[in-house]
Amino acid sequence: MIAVTWAETVSSAVSEQLPKTADAVVIGGGVVGTSIAYHLAKKGFGSVVLLERSYLACGSTGRCGAGVRQQWGTRLNCLLSIASVRAFERMDEELGYGRSIEFKQGGYLLIAYTRREMEQFTKNVELQLSLDIPVSLLTPREAGKIVPILNTDDIYCATFCPTDGHANPFHVTYAYATAGRRLGAKIHTFTDACEILTESGKVEGVRTNKGTISTKVVINAAGPYSGVVARMTGLDIPFYPERHQILVTEPVEPVLGPMVMSFSRRYYCQQTPHGSFIMGMGDPKEKPGFLTSSTWEFLVEMAEEITKVLPPIGELSVVRQWAGLYDMTPDAHPILGGTPVDGFYLACGFSGHGFMLAPVTGELISEIVCDEEPSIDIHGLDLGRFERGELVIEPSVV
Amino acid sequence: MNKKTDREEAMDAAEITVVCRCEDVTLEEIRDLIREGYTTAEEIKRITRCGMGPCQGRTCRELLLAELARASGRKIDEVAPTKYRPPAKPIRLGGIIEGDSSDLG
Predict the structure, then answer these.
(1) Is the dihedral of CA A161, A163, A168, A170 positive or negative?
(2) Thinking of the domain A20-62+170-239+331-388, which architecture would CATH place it in?
């Protein structure tokens, strides 16, 4: 019998001392933070330290619906998600994680239930096709061919993009962390960023519960806690956390290829490669806040809705429900880039799309921190847009 | 006595011990992950799905915690357990809206 001892796990970052200095500190060990740490290390930016107050992917990442789509209503979101899908496609190979990130490109089937929604979809498809996203506008009958268990009553039309899909958020996060560590990034879990030290409007360091790191660069990737982290530098960002609930069923044979989603009815549902169905619904009555408890009301509402949309799913049992936080901005687009505080960068406000945008976010933030021209023009996603009144409204969100 | 299946034979030959029966997770996989540096029950649950199946960890939760305790030289009650999530028992989606209490057992 082989006894595993703690001594054998010394390779783990948990036992490592917090460094006294770093070239960059990333706050937040979700998928966005680990992607940024990996991309900075890959660019050879210098010493990169990531701080996570609990374990990796414990927050919004590990609670998310895991979908990856390119069907958006704004050019910018389309461009960001095209780049992310390409990254997901090559991720198993690129990151050398040893396990699969379980990227399944079963497509997204978006359903329009109102005339207005149909008009919006028609505009979206035109935009998406102009960017070479392989999307098609479908009649209810055609939608029923793609998802035979779909109830096509009340449907105006649908759109389908076969290269959309979903991946496993835990594996993606651990894959970035593993690859980042291999390139020299230091990942410190159970390490709390308590204070960001600044002097004359410049970042000077981060004080943690395990010591202080002196650094000129801090990247805020704290998901729903990004507002709290930004206030450590005196910045107020227009941003609020919002609970979203979700549930998973027992696993069954594959019967649902795509993610099925509706904006007007606010539901989404996918079958994972493992066989279980993951589904969630937005609640317009939800108030801003950090609450992540689950409710019986959600279970009832979700059950009512999904048995109308995909009736055979009513036979499946729910094994687990949970909730996570969206990090909402006024225009449902992320805030990416520098701030008035020199050396302090934001990668937050993903409004429920942080998982799918994490790969491209890591690339773009590492380019910005390295003072390179970003590979996608994202100056419109800066913090200043709210003051300038230049919001980038996304019409297609759950 | 029933004849062993091919899988059971192979498992005996390889000295494999199943920890999570719902998701087919072995003790060997868990030990490999501990060696790789995954030191919390939550992380190992998320990577292997140990405890995520229909029984929600009724057997394997304690086994996983025991292994982590052993590896770190701690007592089992010093190892942070994974979160319990509702519902306490699997419940049919259709049953929820019909108000069918037979699922609640």
Answers:
(1) negative
(2) 3-Layer(bba) Sandwich (3.50)
Q: What is the pLDDT of residue A55?
A: 95
Instruction: List CB contacts (< 8 A) between A58 and chain B.
Output: 42
Chain B residues near residue A299 by CB distance under 8 angstroms: 86-87, 91, 96
Instruction: Render pLDDT for A377-393 as a digit per residue (tens, 0 to 9).
Output: 999 999 999 999 998 88
Give the residue extent of every domain in chain A. Answer: 20-62+170-239+331-388, 108-162, 240-328
Q: Is the dihedral of CA B12, B16, B19, B24 positive or negative?
A: negative
* CB within 8 Å: A4 and B71: yes
Chain A CB contacts of B31 under 8 Å are 2, 4
Evaluate whether A246 touches A280 at the Cβ level (below 8 Å): yes
CATH number of A240-328: 3.30.9.10
CA distance A160 to A69: 10
Å between A379 CA and nearest CA of chain B: 36
Q: Which residues of B touch A293 (CB under 8 A)?
A: none
pLDDT band at B10 (very low <50, low <70, confident <90, very high): confident
* Beta carbons of A299 and B96 less than 8 Å apart: yes
CATH of B6-104, one of 3.30.420.10, 3.20.20.20, 3.30.230.10, 1.10.10.1100: 1.10.10.1100
pLDDT (average), residues A190-211: 97
How does pLDDT run across B33-83, given as a tens digit for each residue? Answer: 999 999 899 999 999 999 999 888 988 999 999 999 999 999 999 999 998
Residue among A18, A80, A52 nearest A362 (CA): A80
Interface test with A, best of B96, B100, B101 (most A CBs within 10 A): B96
Identity of the amino acid at B85: R
Interface size A-B, in CB pairs within 8 Å, comes to 105
Average pLDDT of the residues of chain A: 94
Backbone angles phi, psi at B36, to 5 degrees: -70, -15
Interface test with B, best of A191, A319, A322 (most B CBs within 10 A): A319
Specify the 3-state DSSP secondary structure of A4: coil
Q: What is the amino acid identity at position A264?
A: S
| DSSP H or E segment with residue A95 | helix A75-95
